[in-house]
Design goal:
- The protein is mostly helical and 316 residues long.
- The chain has a single domain, classed as MetI-like (MetI-like fold, Orthogonal Bundle), CATH 1.10.3720.
- It has 16 helices and no strands.
- The protein starts with a helix and ends with a helix.
- 27% of the residues are buried.
């Protein structure tokens, strides 16, 4: 009889836990008790970021223009249709895409090249790292002014070098066919040091016995890096590429600092400059909001695959 009573007491069922007990457990959980610390920033971020995105989309569905308040009673996709039919938008989107791909690709290749050179144990490698990384610490405004002097057609250092070899001086920012290339060159100068540091950290985290094993197998230094070391830098490459693409989408500050107005040099118009010009120069708020929506989709096209990749790797 005594054993039977003990067995019934050791098997509690869910019916013995009422809703009041469950509520008390929930209110005493770490999730609820820590909510004052993470809840308030979460709500503020939600309002500032996702609320702003929602407001932008709502504006883009109206005909808001000038000082007239938006009329939300008649929402349509007219502005998106107008944006897609505008040659200026298509040219800005193309420039954005070229900037995104060329800038990111060359930065990665050049940064990897510098990292491999520094990984050979050359003298003063720490000082060289500092010199190459220094441009990234400068703001877009400072670097834009510096490159404005460098690109000067009369006394810029680039044209001094060009004319020293007997060629005519080049209007780097005034010629639409090369202006975007000049902008990309300046941005590569600023951010290639960042990719160098990312790759160098990845290289120095690889065990040295892999180099020694490849050397014992008779592989040259070039083959060792191409077939053994570089494939192991996939994580570093993905992270650096995403950061560079985000910087490429934020090139508005650099272009604005070059001219001090909403119109960048001919041939370098991107979606951000076109959007700001339509909004603050012409007062076409709905039209600019539609451009901003396309720019947001482009940013999501960069970030979403990275987040999915991190999710597949178990990092999210």
């Amino acid at each position: 009889m005594g054993t039977h009573e003990t067995t019934e007491t050791a098997e509690p069922t869910e019916e013995t836990v009422d809703w009041e007990t469950k509520l008390r457990y929930f209110l005493n959980s770490d999730f609820v008790r820590s909510s004052p610390y993470w809840g308030i920033p979460f709500v503020l971020m939600g309002i500032a970021v996702y609320g702003g995105i929602g407001f932008n989309v709502a504006i883009s569905l109206t005909d808001a223009e000038g000082l007239t308040p938006p009329d939300y009673s008649n929402l349509d996709l007219e502005m998106y249709s107008a944006v897609l039919g505008n040659d200026a938008f298509l040219q800005a989107a193309q420039n954005n895409l070229v900037l995104l791909v060329v800038f990111t690709t060359i930065c990665l290749i050049f940064g990897l090249f510098l990292a491999v050179l520094l990984d050979q144990g050359i003298r003063f490698d720490d000082k060289i790292q500092t010199i190459y990384l220094l441009p990234m610490s400068l703001s877009f405004v400072v670097t834009a002014q510096m490159w404005l002097w460098m690109f000067n057609r009369q006394n810029g250092i680039l044209n001094i070098i060009v004319t020293a070899f007997g060629f005519d001086s080049i209007d780097w920012l005034g010629n639409p066919s090369i202006a975007l290339g000049a902008i990309i060159f300046a941005l590569i100068w600023q951010f290639s040091g960042y990719t160098m540091v990312v790759y160098l950290a990845g290289l120095r985290s690889i065990p040295t016995d892999q180099f020694e094993a490849a050397r014992v197998d008779g592989a040259s230094t070039t083959k060792t890096y191409l077939r053994v070391i570089v494939p192991q830098l996939k994580e570093a490459s993905v992270s650096a590429a995403v950061v560079l693409m985000v910087f490429a989408l934020k090139a508005f500050t650099f272009l604005y600092a070059l001219t001090g107005r909403y119109r960048p040099p001919n041939g370098t118009d991107i979606l951000a400059t076109l959007m700001v010009r339509q909004a603050f120069k012409f007062g076409k708020w709905a039209y600019a909001a539609a451009i901003a929506s396309f720019l947001m989709l482009m940013a999501l096209g960069v970030i979403a695959p990275y987040l999915y990749y991190q999710y597949r790797q178990g990092s999210l």
